[in-house]
Amino acid sequence: MKVVLYQPDDGEPPHYPVQLLMLGAALEEAGHEPIIIDGRLGDTPPSDYHMLGVSALTGNQITDALKFCEKSPARVKVWGGWHPTLLPEQTARHPMVDVAVIGQGEETITQLADNNEYKDIDGICWSDNGETHRTPPRAKKKLSQRPRPAWHLVDMKKYISLQPEAFYIASEGCPYNCAYCSISYLKHKWNGLNPGVVRNEHEMFRDSFGATGIWFGDNTFCINKRWTEAVLEQLREVGMPWHCSSRVDIVNRLPDHEILDAKEAGLYKIIFGIESGSDATLKRLNKGVTSREAMEAIKKLHRLGIQTGAHFMFGTPGETRQDVDTTIRFIRRLLLSRKMKMFSVYYYTPYPGTVLHEAAVDEGWEIPNTLQGWGRLGWCEIPDGMDLKDVERVETLKKWLGRRYPGKATYWAGSKMRLIT
Q1: pTM as predicted
Q2: Topology of domain 143-420, per CATH?
């Protein structure tokens, strides 16, 4: 069966669609013909195919995917990814959705392509005459047990030319319970690839596709010490620079020599999800750290010659004007210290199933009740419960940063990337 797998256009710089490549590998192994279409690249789909698979995050990916579905000749339209997993029934009720996939989709989409009866396929939801049906959850597999991406299904050299640092996921899952994050809600336990696989694929990125570095997209790097040490040993042999995301408390616990070992293996930058400079907000977010600890981690890495970056989020339920001002002062302090090379400013999105989502509902926020409604909600949209005067403060911060620090570091504002400090 010919199956088109669609990556929605979300306005972001494109890296290769790793999840779709894993789906493609599973479909190929089962004898089907997967074709990957990337909306970010303006790919043209074939004129005829039987099944369409869409992977979508909450936000504008949904809007673009719905537009693609409206023009699709596919007889069966399958939606998977984070948003359908979080809200399968609501997703399945949309007329442009035949099946919503819950969780890992490699086996599921293969069984759908094999024309199995819906009732016999675990981990799906569908609507029939206004009534939704849901099968038992599919057992989760570790990353090492799932098919490796079918790299040949896309032009990897083209993706690498657009993003010379190859996006790579070596581990998944996170043991922490941040109140705004859906990873903890879905209870994704940490697990990692075999370090030898990591080395082989990094060498492939470098030698076959022209990558000049690696961007680890793992939820939280350095969680498992033994695994991390084994990966670092392999990365030393590869010899490419790389950066990752981690937590400030993990970095603060690491002795200097272990961070320097990672630096010797190519580490040049760590990005933190600091989220707020207000300790009151950090407590509501259940971050388990303070703004002082965040500053200590940044200073520590700066001393050791490692660049840092940070994500900040405004508009969470319960955030006060004092919290907003405290965070703005914290960001200004970081930038004036010249110890940070990259940061991003987002607005809060009330992802369903999270603790903060329930808090937003309790505060009377207007939460979308349709799939297309969620498509209008994203990290660049002003939250329903945020005071407009606080929004003005955040937007003033963005403008100040653009004037004060042109051309030196990466900064996300709305849906466009600008250069600042």
Answers
A1: 0.90
A2: TIM Barrel (3.20.20)
